[in-house]
Amino acid sequence: MDKIVIEGGHRLEGSVRINGAKNAALPVMAACLLLDGPSRIKGIPNIVDIQTQSKILENLGGQIKRHDDGTLEIAFRDGENNDKYTAPYELVRKMRASICVLGPLLTKRRKAKVSYPGGCVIGQRPVDLHINGLRALGAQIETTEGYINATADRLKGTDISLKGKYGSTVLGTCNVMSAAVLAEGTTIIEDAAREPEVQDLANFLNTAGAKITGIGESRLTIEGVKELHGVDYEIIPDRIEAGTFMIAGAITKGNITLENVRADHLTAVIDKLKEIGVEINTIGNTSRVKGNNLYHNVDITTLPYPGMPTDMQAQFMALLCTVEGKSIITEKIFTDRFMHVPELVRMGADIRVEVSSAIIRGTPCLTGANVMISDLRAGAGLALAGLVAKGTTTIDRVYHLDRGYERLEERLSKLGAVIKRIRD
Ligand code: UD1
């Protein structure tokens, strides 16, 4: 397994380009199952999750070609693949987001067999809301031998609520919306997720001929159509990657420029960084991040969009470990998502977890240590901590980072970090 070794204490300077959003690209790729005709999708990051999704789609008859500029061509030959409807365990277990082929398969091929994604290191991740939503549209669904087996005649539009114990569901909204676009009649999804990635999928589907209104609101109205066509589309910039680089600039007291940023998708993140004392200025799609020595402790609560993303929690924790005073981070989406805490403690952080909150007392200096990544965003948090820790940090299980960040160490190195990958 590859490792990343970081020598901390180097200020970041320079400019970095933000890639297209992983979490928008994955459901958009799955939605290509719905289209008659080939599509060209720009801004697809070259990361392991995209490779996994490509394999799942190829298994379902897709022809996929990647170009060096990040464009993906995806085509399914209409009518030739109706006997292909399985997303197998070997691929689904690598990436929970593969569940987003369920809705498209069901509505287009009338049959889907998708491995149950199961638990996950960041906590319980049920799919009851996906299943309830698809059942409301008329699907018959049962779970046998670890697979979700679903069948349907043409789905029928209806009113559906996707409200769960922790708010709406991002991929559940993607699944139900993708299924409803080819259903007969009108579907209203109440309590829909409003995340920019869900909006991007809706915009993609509308470009392909779907009729979705209320995009970005918690009530989506979807008028079913008979068919969708191939499109040229560009994925939105990755707000989590942008937020991660913003914190890299902040934690090293650096001065960096981020290109290809949608600051309007990052309001909660930017507001919190400003409250901490980081200077951020955005002109058009470019954000300049300037750190300093005068940061303040803050409290953070993760919430559904437009609130603070849970996918930025570990990165903010790394920063707050270095800020004098007591900060409290409360996790309201995945209440057990604190696997990075013991690793940060190994680096000298003072953090106590109580139920779904982490109480952090900032220390003047983190120290390098051997740490292990438990999940993608935990890995980002540890890498950020390594950038400022005194001495050397060796990060193990880098494959988690490779799922979501393209050449992270190369890009940080270009900004002045002393960081290298040790290949296994
Ligand atoms: C997506 C993101 C993930 C992000 C998460 C929350 C992708 C590929 N992944 O995951 O990076 O951290 O949104 O913003 O886009 N829940 C249920 N029943 C369900 C589904 C979810 O109770 O059927 C609960 C979950 O346990 C969680 C909350 O709802 O507490 C939100 O989860 P959800 O929005 O579904 O996360 P994902 O879409 O899997």
How would you portray this structure in words?
- There is one protein chain.
- With 424 residues, the chain is α/β, with parallel strands linked by helices.
- Helices cover 30% and strands 25% of the residues.
- It contains 14 helices and 26 strands.
- It has helices at 22-31, 48-59, 89-92, 102-109, 128-136, 170-180, 196-207, 239-251, 267-276, 313-320, 341-346, 376-388, 399-404, 408-414; strands at 3-7, 13-17, 35-36, 39-42, 63-66, 72-75, 86-87, 111-115, 140-144, 147-151, 159-161, 186-190, 211-213, 220-223, 228-229, 232-234, 255-259, 279-283, 286-290, 299-301, 326-330, 350-354, 357-361, 370-372, 392-396, 418-422.
- A hairpin with a 2-residue loop joins strand 9 and strand 10.
- The model has no long low-confidence stretch (mean pLDDT 96).
